[in-house]
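[[Sequence with tokens]]
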Amino acid sequence: MEPDIAQVEKSIFEWIEQNFEDVFVIEVKCHKGKQNLLRVTVDKDKGISIGDCALINRKLQEWLLCYPVFLENYRIEVSSPGLSEPFKVFRQYTKNIGREVIVTLLNGEKIKGTLVAAHAEQNNITLQTQPNSYKNKNATKSNNTTITTTIPLKEIKHCFIDIKI
């Protein structure tokens, strides 16, 4: 009997976070098809190296031998999220405090600012933005040039690091 893919993904998620210090998992996805693929996205608060990803990949291949589904032709990819990917887990917000981000709200409005705080208890983030970049009842002027804005996570469609070229 084939294991439930969602349960396998959850087990991989838990196994990595238990066995690799400071590593947090962003996403685990199993893709069955013509070419079976297990894609794992991981990071660390101080950044993850290619060597870290390679080590996780090797150890994960060994551990997965207990799941017969992975004895088939499966390719395993372990990588970092990349700068052009949106945040998917709360820890990415805390990791990127102090960086410029672009937040798109569910209503389509875009806000550009410096991520200054991420509050798990209140389920929100705080940005420092330029005047007129976001009109919100939760915004307060901190001085003449910046506005502190609190945004509930439930209002965020996606958030990206603002990459300057």
About this structure: The longest helix spans residues 5-19. The chain has three helices and nine strands. The two ends are 51 Å apart (CA to CA).
